[in-house]
Amino acid sequence: MPEIYVTKPQVYIFGRQTVVQEELTRFLQDEGLTFTTDAAAAGEVLSEIAGRTCYMSFGKGRKTNREYLENILTSKHGSVLEHAVWCLLITGVSRALTHELVRHRAGFGYSQLSQRYVDESEAQYVVPPLYQESPELRAKWQQTIECLRKAYVELAEATAQYVQEKHPEMEPRDRRKWARQAARSILPNATETKIFVTGNSRAWRHFLELRGSVHADTEIRLLAVEVFRALKKESPNIFQDLELVDEPDGMPSVRVLHSKV
Question: Which of 82, 60, 85, 81 is nearest to 69 (CA)?
């Protein structure tokens, strides 16, 4: 059984794009063009192709993908970056965090664990970073969580029994859903959740700029750092102007050179 208390988010890259080379070759032949790129990530290649299509500048100007995308970033031609997409599965985060995360709408898609269908009697809970610093405060916090865990289990069982007596004709699955959707009302914001997020690189950059800031909530800032590490490895050229900076509060932040691309 996994540890009930979670202290760090996990980020899994579940989806990345591929370039359909046959169609790229066909397009270049039809247009009488020559184009090569040194980029390894398909998202970087697609962003470059999209940008070059605007001016039909294939085979001209900047030679490396990094140089080309650097110009995109400095000129804030951010729409070109919307063609690069990554799918991340995020775990070890709280409901409080996802309430903030899903406010990022443009360029994102979300699929989140349902508390109506999933039994949360064995749920995990995310320890706020501030309470990770203080054993005394963490102990008080965990005492509260244990009380809420017990209350949820007892309430869910009592509610299921009530629904069964009131609606004996109802399918067992529907009875469980009714009980859980009512009992979940007492679950705390710290309840761990899982969320599948698909976003284009322009949207991810915006998320990293806002949520990786020293002014962001500490839990979502920790997530932004993990997302940064994953995407910087995936696409060093698109995220070339982003870096981690050690801050006086002991936590890293994400610094963006070209803001609001």
Answer: 81
Q: What is the mean pLDDT of the segment spanning 197-211? A: 98
Query: Are the C-beta atoms of residues 217 and 100 closer than 8 Å to each other?
Result: yes
Record the pTM. 0.94
HSE at residue 109, side-chain half, CA atoms within 13 A, is 6
Task: Quickly count helices (H) and strands (E) in the chain.
Answer: 9, 8
pLDDT at residue 176 is higher than 90:
no
If pLDDT is split at 50, 70 and 90, which confidence band does 104 have? very high
Mean pLDDT taken over the chain: 95
Q: What's the average model confidence in pLDDT over 88-101?
A: 98
What local confidence, expressed as pLDDT, does residue 171 receive?
A: 86
Is 205 among the residues known to form the active site? Answer: no
Cβ contacts of 59 within 8 Å, gap of 6 or more: 33, 34, 35
Beta strand pairing status for 5-6 and 125-126? Answer: parallel
Q: Of the residues 95, 205, 211, 255, which is catalytic? A: 211
Annotated domain spans of the chain: 16-82, 132-186
DSSP string, 144-201: HHHHHHHHHHHHHHHHHHHHHHH-TTS-HHHHHHHHHHHHGGG--TTBEEEEEEEEEH
11: amino acid identity, one letter: V
Per-residue pLDDT averaged across 120-140, rounded? 96
Dihedral of CA atoms 64, 65, 68, 70 in degrees, nearest 10, equals -110
